[in-house]
Amino acid sequence: MTSSISGKIFCFWIFLSFFIPTVIVAEESSSYSEAKTPELTEEAEKAIERGLKFLISNQNKDGSWSSKDPENEESTPYAIGGTSLALMAFMVEGHFPGFGKYGKAL
User: Fold this and answer.
1) Above 90 in pLDDT, residue 16?
2) What angle do CA 77, 62, 104 make, to 5 degrees?
3) Which one, 4, 38, 56, 84, has the greatest CB density within 10 A?
């Protein structure tokens, strides 16, 4: 009989060891969702716009972005990575292929 009771107590402690940390983590994570991101200043908005214009002006003829080899104009190393990073910069600002101010260029 005592082994049955001690088994139940053991199971109860195992249950609590999983339940209590879960409740604590859930409580902590809910406070993070209440945090607000600060608004960008006008100066920051202008800097972002200049950056997007720079990317458009340095876009390759085929629509990609990459590093250029000064000795070989045809070389476009890292085109996939460069294009991915450039597209993410546009998408963060709401410009998608066919949509937004830069939609045609994307």
Assistant:
1) no
2) 130
3) 56
